[in-house]
Amino acid sequence: MPLSPSPSPTRRLAFCTLVVCVLAVAAAVVSFARGSWLGIVWVLLAGLSSNMAWYYTKRGRTAGGQGDSPVTS
């Protein structure tokens, strides 16, 4: 029997996008340190994944007591 319930899909998505954001920032730093302008792509990816993490975190909090989906029919 698990000690805690499994996280909702929105929490998992928020966590995954946060991990992608951190990895993209690290890749951008390494890329710029090596003198490559490819780091700009990594910065853009970090910005996109940061916004996605924020969105899914907020969506998960909004849906708190309503189940997995914030949309009610």
Question: How many DSSP E strands?
Answer: 0
Quote the beta fraction: under 5%
Q: What is the end-to-end distance?
A: 33 Å
Provide the low-confidence segments as ranges.
Answer: none
Rg from alpha-carbon coordinates = 16 Å
Q: Major sheet, described briefly?
A: none
Envelope shape: elongated
* Average pLDDT score: 85
Structure class: mainly alpha
Number of helices: 2
Helix percentage range? 55-70%
| SSE string, helices as H and strands as E | HH
Give a written overview of the molecule.
With 73 residues, the protein is mainly alpha-helical. Helix content is 67%, strand content 0%. The chain is built from two helices and no strands. It has helices at residues 9-33, 39-62. α1 runs antiparallel to α2 (39-62). The longest helix is centred in the first third of the chain and has 25 residues, at 9-33.
